[in-house]
């Protein structure tokens, strides 16, 4: 018997319910997995609220770490007792146990703890594809990263600073600013008190930055565009403050022939080879200490709704996990 968070209607965190479900035997290509730690991400709140529509009723969660209990026919590279993690595949990570296709799983190196993996997979591979493939950032460049004290932001700050990249980090409070500085931000802007674009121009001597990474969305979109240098790239990859407004292509022209993209992780780990390459890049940085990561907030699985409330209210910094 497994415990699982489900929701039958979209809405606030109160729609999340804990249910007991039977777990059958794994079918061909499947694995019976017992979760030890489960990642909580902003995309989960978008799916729960209906911003990203799902067929209902539905489970939730796309990231976790755990131990293999049994394998189905044809799974010859995993066995009971193996430690694994994943980010992606069918929703359902908010559960104590589940069946999942083996193709989504990655063996965990011995030096990476389950809790670290549960909060690193989705966010860490997101950083990998953003800074190495969406816009391949080069040493010596200066970039703007919004919500830098959040889970993705904290990984990005460490990753980029280790590359010799100057990061202008935006945060919503003085306390979050201290976190950003500690993790390697060269400059910190409190967007609740300062004009972001004006400060970016001041820091860069009027030039602007070649790329902006923005997961905040609606409230920072205009400032992000105004912070870019000619032919710069605006990478919008989240909607924490709501969806960005419609934009005319002519606005990109007027601001200096800008590029605008809205990528998602699934398109960058669509093949097994891409998944393995992205996770390997992340695992190397976790193992060599380039990225130091542990969950900042832990909630019992039964308190998933409270985790969502705190995440949406910006009460959390860093990564959030559920413990079955």
Textual characterization of the structure:
By secondary structure, the chain is α/β, with parallel strands linked by helices. The chain has 2 domains: 2-113 and 294-323, Medium-chain alcohol dehydrogenases, catalytic domain (Quinone Oxidoreductase, Chain A, domain 1), CATH 3.90.180; 123-265, NAD(P)-binding Rossmann-like Domain (Rossmann fold, 3-Layer(aba) Sandwich). α2 (114-134) crosses α3 (151-162) and α2 crosses α8 (272-287). It has helices at residues 42-49, 114-134, 151-162, 174-182, 196-203, 221-226, 249-254, 272-287, 304-312, and strands at 2-7, 17-21, 30-40, 58-59, 63-71, 83-87, 97-101, 106-107, 142-145, 166-171, 187-190, 209-214, 228-236, 259-261, 297-300, 320-323. The protein contains 9 helices and 16 strands. β15 (297-300), α9 and β16 (320-323) form a beta-alpha-beta unit. The strands form 3 sheets. Strands 3, 5, 6, 7, 8, 15 and 16 form a 7-stranded mixed β-sheet that branches. A 6-stranded parallel β-sheet has the order 11-10-9-12-13-14, with helices on both faces. The protein is globular and about 60 Å long. The mean pLDDT is 95.
CATH topology descriptor of the largest domain: Rossmann fold
What letter string, H or E per element, gives the SSE order?
Answer: EEEHEEEEEHEHEHEHEHEHEHEHE
Cα radius of gyration in angstroms: 20 Å
- Shape assignment: globular
Number of domains: 2
Counting DSSP E segments of at least 2 residues, the number of strands comes to 16
Count of alpha/pi helices: 9
User: Which structural class is indicated by helix and strand composition?
Assistant: alpha/beta
Mean pLDDT: 95
Helix content: 25-40%
> Could you say what the CATH architecture of the largest domain is?
3-Layer(aba) Sandwich
> Which CATH class of the largest domain is shown?
Alpha Beta
